[in-house]
Amino acid sequence: MARFALVGVVNTGTYYACYLALLTWLPYIAAHVLAFALSMTGSFFLNSRFTYRTRPTWRKFLLFPLTNAANFLITTGGVYVLVDLAGFSSRYAPLIAAAAAIPITFLVSRTIMLRPDPVDRAVERVP
Q: pTM of the full predicted structure?
């Protein structure tokens, strides 16, 4: 959990730096979506190697966005609610919205990253 949190801090910093850079020439939702996609790619490799100490595979890479689907929905909805409905600054709303998604992201991420690939299971069965 500590390694996941550390990767989360790095990922949040990456996301936020990208978001602020993109916010200068894109609407806040577009900046959020693009920054999220960029930081998610880095998060996959960090979580794979550092957090769960597993080999990154294409299968896991393609499934990894599922770990962030709940995160994405919660943070995107949260950003919208905080900016458009509650009047928060679009510069800080993503940080507030991200906090609510952390536990869900951890559980889904752990399930995907620690699940053996079908090829690995087949190799385990060979005597």
A: 0.63
